[in-house]
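Entry 12.
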Amino acid sequence: MLKMFDFSPTQLQLTLANAGGLCSVIAFWVYVLSNANKNWVKKMQALGGVILFIAFICLTLTIIMRGIAANRFPLANLYESTLWFSWAITGGYLFLLRKYQAYQLGWLAALTATMFLVYGSWLPGNQQEVTPLVPALVSYWRKIHVPPLIISYALFCLSGLAGLIQLWFAGRWRSLIIGVITIACAITAILLGTYTEIETGWLQLLFVGSSIAGILLAWKNLPVIKTDKVNEHNAATYDEISSRAIAVALPLLTFGIISGGLWANHAWGTYWSWDPKESMALVTFLSYAAYIHLRIHHELSAERLSIVSIIGLLLTLLTYLGFNSLGFGGLHSYGRFK
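Predicted 3D structure (tokens):
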């Protein structure tokens, strides 16, 4: 009877990943439907949190089983990084949920985790298969350098999503809609770069052009307020959530950049080579450093800081996925799939 079932680490990893993805989808719909009936809101929101916790456990076990199946630390290509990202964004949200009861962020966190799991599952088979490491990745530095970066990317993403919700509760619906469309255009460029053969120059234009135009329009439209939709308490809460996520993520990104320089010196004999991806990581670091500076010195309103967090989210997407899918090239191309 037991022979009918495959309990190998590879099969268990796939099963657990699918279970984590399914739980994320269910949690998304539970959070969305919690707004349909006021009598069920608290129960549905609590249920959504429980289901996301189950997803987090499944993803944790997925990563462990992936490591057992590969007989190495399970973070060596794009597919494995999507597992870590989904795990980190789920765990990051659950941490914020305990402190802030940020239920409105739940459906966005669940949706994002689902999207990254689907994105990873649709990558070519050579990304998903357990294969030996390329020589450049056979180093203890990989365990030190990569996990903090992936976790920081997930937290930056949560910060940007919290910024969108802050605009919602602040009544800046026009800026919110423009911000959502801008992020959608950036994601579309990445997806087209991953799964199609469209000329990368057009995709770079779509990503960069839509990002610049969208941010400028969102910033310009901030004075437009729907006063009947303003909830100052919730707006202040999600402003704080956004800043707290950045406060945790920025040191992780800093550590990742420094450890990357040490690894580069070990592997290539130079701490910094102005590789496109490491240069973009530096730009991302500077954008969030600017956010911290502006917030500490109260130089921008909460709504404008939300726009800055959305800028950071776009830069994070470009740093994490853009250099693989949009054809920027460089030394950080071990996870390439074309």
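Annotation: The mean pLDDT is 89. Residues 144-338 form one domain.
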